[in-house]
Every structure is written in structure tokens, then in C-alpha cells.
Amino acid sequence: MATGGKKLWGGRFSGALDPVMNKFNESLSVDQRMWASDIQGSKAYAKALCAAGVITADETNKFKMVWTKFMKNGLKENIHTANERRLTELIGNAGGKLHTGRSRNDQVATDVRLYVKDAIKGLMHQMGELLAVATHLAESNMSLLMPGFTHLQPAQPIRFAHWVMSHVAALQRDVERLSDLTKRVDVLPLGSGALAGHSFGIDRQLLAKELGFARISPNSLDAVCDRDFIVELMFWASMTMVHFSQLSEDLIIYNTLKFVTMADAYSTGSSLMPQKKNPDALELLRGKCGSVIGRLNGFMITLKGLPRSYNKDLQEDKSALFYCIDSMVDCIQIAAGVLATLTPNGGKMRAFLVTEMLATDLAEYLVRRGVPFRETHHVAGAAVRLAEDSNKPLSSLTLAELKSLHSSFEADVMDVWNFDSSVERKNVPGGTSEAAVKGHIDAVKLYLKKEFQL
Fold first, then answer.
1. Which member of 14, 151, 271, 407 is catalytic?
2. Which of 140, 143, 179, 270 is catalytic?
3. Among the CATH numbers 1.20.1730.10, 1.10.10.10, 3.50.50.60, 1.10.275.10, which is that of 3-100?
4. Which pLDDT belongs to residue 135?
5. Where are the CATH 1.10.275.10 domain residues in the chain?
6. 440 in catalytic set
7. Where is the Fumarate lyase N-terminal domain (predicted)?
8. 27 part of the active site
9. Global model pTM greater than 0.85
10. How far apart are CA 365 and CA 403, in angstroms?
């Protein structure tokens, strides 16, 4: 509504709007949170209108006084029209000049970009703190060994810190992806009008400077309907939630195996079984992943059939966007809390190690004696089968039994059955040796110091 209870677009219409249509059409309940961004955009627009000679300096100053009051007290009504209505109530007909050359199409597009730019700053800070928490968890537990899994089957021994840093690597990509997105959000659509541009020679570069945008949109048709940046942010949220879900799945399994203990703050009990301590925080993180991906999919389907320029379908953007942002704000905080309070159980992890996980090391023993790996792989497999048939651990095979499989085995083959030595042999960048894991940790810490001052 504008002045006198009239719709901004009401001059064309004589009949009243169906109340159901009015409810169907409204977006206030969703858009309300952007009121500060809307005032920020209007302040810059008023300055540009003044520079273009559309409003006077005195009128601009009066606008500023009203907006100062809005910013202090909040704007608890339709953000896209309240500016004009309240300005007109407080300073007279001059308030009606604010919308000159401006459409709700470029106004709302600007509001959303301002809001998203600010949201990204907050999300980046949260993600930086999460990386710092995870890296500290790894650094504090460097000596702990655990089974590494493929296909959920015990595979080779690794450091617990190496497992933690595997998730840090994925989350760091998410941080970099979010940072890269900023440059595509940082484009000013204001001054595009409804779709065809501005008729009053407004200085769009001035607008961009006032609002802190890096550049202006190159095409007015595209500017009012471009929601790529929203899709990208929701994709970022979806990809990050996939990584949270994978982290949660790992920890749910490790919690069941007693490799780790969840803090009470992130667990709940059973209404029937007193002994239960459920990893609900992790299950909720895993569950939220589907909801966030669903919002991305839904909005992309909305976009795929739209003709060029603005269509009201685009009003669906903000409910999906805000859901994703709100979910990420909560999920990042929960993930950081879980990791900050997690207790690794080194004894339980080490007890799960079995010498069959060193079968590759047995094959590599022969490689170091000049036997081709394809042959040594076959020999090690035969050793595993022999141990299984004898119903004993792989490390209990005698030297004579091993020699029956290949003559190159010597007495020092028994040194192979050492989990710490196995882990330390993986001493290449990206490997699970202490030096390699420490190198990864130091690199992330340097990144956090450079990017986040953490």
C-alpha cells in the first residue's frame, strides 16, 4: 500500500482485489527481514536522485531524518512501500518523489543483494571458526591411531587427526566456494527500472559506490530477473550440508563403536530407555541436508520455465533463500559445538585395529625386495587366506608359512606387524604420517590466519 491506502500500481485498476488473492500475492511476511537493506538502498537512491536534479538537497535531508528514525526504531511494515508512505506522512508530497524511475523490480533485487552480501560475511566468519575448531581437534590428538575404512570395511590404519583433516579439506573448499560467490553477488541492479532502464540520467556508478557494490549490472532486462546468485548460494549451502551430513554419518558410526564420546550438550535421551544417549545433533545435521537441497531444487525448477525479465514467480526466491541461510547459521554453529566438545577414545580406536589391515604392508615388504607389486599383492592375498583357513590372525603366520608363499620373506618380515610404523611409512604430502598431517594442519592454520585472522 502507498499513500491513502492505495496500491502503488492501483491507478490501472477499479475493482477490489480478492482477499484470497491479496494473501496469495503478499510477501511482507518473508521480506520483512530486509527492511534495513531497503532503507540503505533508498538512502543511496535519494542521493542519486538529488544529483540528477529530481529532488532537492533540502528534500534529501528531510528523507535522511525520517530514515534515521526508521533505523533506530525498526520498520515493522511492508518494506517496499513503507518508505514512501511514511515519508509522505512526515514530510508531505515530496515523499512521493522517492520512487521516481525506480521499480519494485530493481528495488527488491537490490535489497536481496545487499542482504546476501551481509549474510555471506557472517557465514564466512562462522565457517572460519568451524575450521579452526576442527583443526584444533586434529592437532590435539595427533598420536591417536584408528582404522580407516573403505566400503565401511576396515582398510588401513590412519591417524585420527588425518580423518579429522579429511573433513577440514572438504570444508575449506566450501569456504573458498562461498568467497568466490561474493563477486557475483557484488553487482548493483538499481537504476534498471522495471526492465528498460532509467529515464532521468541517474548516476549508477554513484549508486554502486554509495552501496558498496563492485560493479553495476550491464543489462536492465537481466538485472531485474537475475537470481543466479541466489541459486549459487543455495548450492553452496547444499554442498556444505552434504559435507556436514558425511561428517555426521562418520561420527554417528564412531559414536556407536565408542571411538568418540558425544558431549551431553549435543545428545538426548530416550523417553523409555534410561541408558540411551543419542547423537541427535548429528542426526539433525544429516537430516537438514535433504531440506536444504530440496529448497535449491525447488527454486531451480521455478526458474527454468521463466520468460525473460521480471515475473512474479521470482517472489519464491526469498523464502527458499532465507531458509537456507537460517539453516546454515544454525548448522555451522552445531557442527562447531559438536567438534569442540567431542572426546576421542584412543584406546577404543586402537583396539579395533587388526593385523589384517597390514596386508598391504606385507605386500610392500616384498616390493622392497624387488618383487613386482602385482605379484606381491597376490602373495599377500594368499597369506590372508592361509590365516583365515588356519583360524588365526595374519600376524600369527610363522616365517616358514610365509616362506611357503614366497622365498623372499626373511625374519625381519615380523617387523611389518606394527601399526605405528605402517602409518609413518605414509610420509608424503597428504599422507597419514605425523609429519604429513602436521604439514596439512600448519597449512590450514596459515590460511585461517591470513583469511580470518584466527
1. 151
2. 270
3. 1.10.275.10
4. 98
5. 3-100
6. no
7. 11-294
8. no
9. yes
10. 13
